[in-house]
Amino acid sequence: MQILNLPAAAEGVPALQGIFVITMPDCLLFDSYVLPVLQEASEELSALFGELIRNNREVLRLMGSWSSELQITVESSDRLLHLRELREDFLLVFAFEASLPIGMARLFGRRISETLQFQLEGFQEGSLEEEAEESPRAARILEFLQRYAPDPHASMMRLALRTGIPMEHLEAPASLSPQALAKVEEAVCDILGIDQLNV
Amino acid sequence: MTIQIKKEELFSFLPEHAFSFFADTPVVYHCHHYNLWLDQTIDDALGSRESVALRTRCAHEAFYHYLAQLIPRTGAETPAEKLKVAELIFGAMGHGTLRLHTQAQGGLATGDFLHYGFTWKEKYGEKVRRRHTADAVAAGCAVAATEIAYDLPMGTLDVAEETCVALGAPQCRFQIEGAKQPMPPSRPVGKKETQRLLGDSFTGKYEDQIHAIATGLRNFLGTINSDERGLVQGFGVFVTLHLASYYNSISYNALYNIERTAPQSFRVMEELLIEAGHQCGFNTFGGIIGSPEWEGLAGAPTGDPLEILIGCCAIGRALGFGQWTIQDYTPEKYFVLRSPGTYESTYHVTRHGLASSGRCYLHQGGTLAMVQLAHRVNWRDKPQFTPELYSSLFRGQAQWRTEETHCVSKGDDYCEIVVERTGN
Fold first, then answer.
1. What is the DSSP letter of B397?
2. B342, B415 in Cβ contact below 8 A?
3. Which CATH superfamily hosts domain A6-123?
4. β-bridge partners, B157
């Protein structure tokens, strides 16, 4: 379902292969307008794009730099990606053919962002966060695990063994007690080898 | 004295039961997918600290009994010669390069390209950060070899892996010193103990084909040597010749620990042990059948599911898993694999007595993998057995259900796995 009028925003932009609108910080696909070749992976791509911007922010933070609305351009032999933050709660990603000059990609990206900024005014900062909060933290942690665990097909079984929480309880994350949730969080950190979860 | 490791003399095979022994110690071939998954399952069950302790202790025990049998047959007399034999044999089994700089009171051991740490880094290093050491097997071998070299009782020394390649170190280092706590005594589960349990063997359908392929493959495996790193790389996997006792002792010790401390997790641990077998079967059997060597041995796979099942059954035998026989098969619906005993069930009965249900988890997972390879892989496309293929095939709802209907571990005359379509 199209939420924004992305075709209108993309009209007349040459070499454009797709636009992804991603909510931050949960890295979920909000809307997209992409070629079929990118369509199937768009949910997974959204998560990875979100991580990309998050990691770059962390790099800048460690280097003592700061940018209110970060931009990243990624070049490959067949594609040019331009990522722009929009407010604190959206990330826009534009995929172009590699033949487009980088400067043009940035220019088109800025123009489309301005158009979308207007459309996104209806989605006030915070409203998405509240919506995200409705999804229980446990569910988001489990989604995170499934997304990043090296063997996702078995990640829930591993979590059940690590925590001692039966699978059927893990499958109803909203019902987990705070103690169970703490166990889940610790186990997910152990499985992924990370110190803390920012979800 | 010249050290002589005569592989042909030390290796023995029970053809009717398809069990392999090296220096009268049960051995099996396993790939890094199985090895890593099994260790990881023990980590998941016990937590990394207890798991490392258990896995090290089990490797210590298994290698102590093994080297105690092996070293006297090599002509090694001095401690230095005995340590050298341990280094050589460890590398020859595909476990990597281990160097032992130890005395009777302990010392240092170093490891390069150790199978567990090295392959963990290869498989998972870019995906997750590891937080505990990976080379319990090398640690166990190092401490056991030192005890054997200096004629010390098992458990005199203890070992800790201080740096590990899987944690980013350039080399693995092990510190060996006097044990602070005694190790419970144990008796080996060797060839004699295994043979004592074996009943009459039997055959199944397509026996001539299975036997011919298994013999050819076993002969071929006998010619494979480790490379200069002490690793065996082939069929798209890293292969080890491993001590069956190690696999069995870590699995059953951890499983029974879970049964005592978290009985609600018993079944999920069983599922993960079966998954280890499934990963083994899918990746190793698949890699072997897709290899040029297989084409020379049995012909290129045509995609006929029965042909794949026959091939997998032969591979199971050649790897030392037991006398796998096909008893029943209905395409797309039903498959029955039966064996007069497996390296799991014979160990279980010897060490743990009779169980209330089947305990052949590798056998279960391996049989399920056979069916998946037969029915879900397009062999004409020459598939690569990558983690991506695995994930794409097995992420959704299970299409087949597996059950161990009979098991020597629970007093039956044979072990039998039935795999059926779930209807999805």
1. S
2. yes
3. Dynein light chain 2a, cytoplasmic (3.30.450.30)
4. B178
Distance in Å, alpha carbon of B168 to nearest chain A alpha carbon: 13
Residues B340, B198: Cα–Cα separation, whole Å: 7
Q: Cα–Cα distances in Å, from A163 out to A2, A196, B263, B268? A: 40, 17, 12, 11
Per-residue pLDDT of chain B (424 residues; tens, 9 = 90+): 578 888 888 999 999 999 999 999 999 999 999 999 999 999 999 999 999 999 999 999 999 999 999 999 999 999 999 999 999 999 999 999 999 999 999 999 999 999 999 999 999 998 888 999 999 999 999 999 999 999 999 999 999 999 999 999 999 999 999 999 888 888 899 999 999 989 899 999 999 999 999 999 999 998 999 999 999 999 989 999 999 999 999 999 999 999 999 999 999 999 999 999 999 999 999 999 999 989 989 999 998 999 999 999 999 999 999 999 999 999 999 999 999 999 999 999 999 999 999 999 999 999 999 999 999 999 988 898 888 888 778 877 778 999 999 999 999 999 999 999 987 5
Residues 146-175, chain A, touching B (beta carbon < 8 A): 148-154, 157-158, 160-162, 164, 166-167
Same-fold call for B27-178 versus B191-422: yes
* Smallest CA–CA distance from A158 into chain B, residue: B44
Within a 13 Å sphere around the CA of A91, how many CA atoms are in the beta-carbon half? 26
Q: So where are chain A's domains?
A: 6-123, 129-192
Q: CA–CA separation, A27 vs A19, rounded Å?
A: 15
Chain A: closest CA distance from residue B177 (Å): 30
A197/chain B closest Cα distance in angstroms: 14
Please state which CATH number belongs to domain B27-178.
Answer: 3.30.1380.20
In A, minimum Cα distance to B261 occurs at: A164
Task: Give the CA dihedral A145, B127, B279, B420, nearest 10 degrees.
Answer: 30
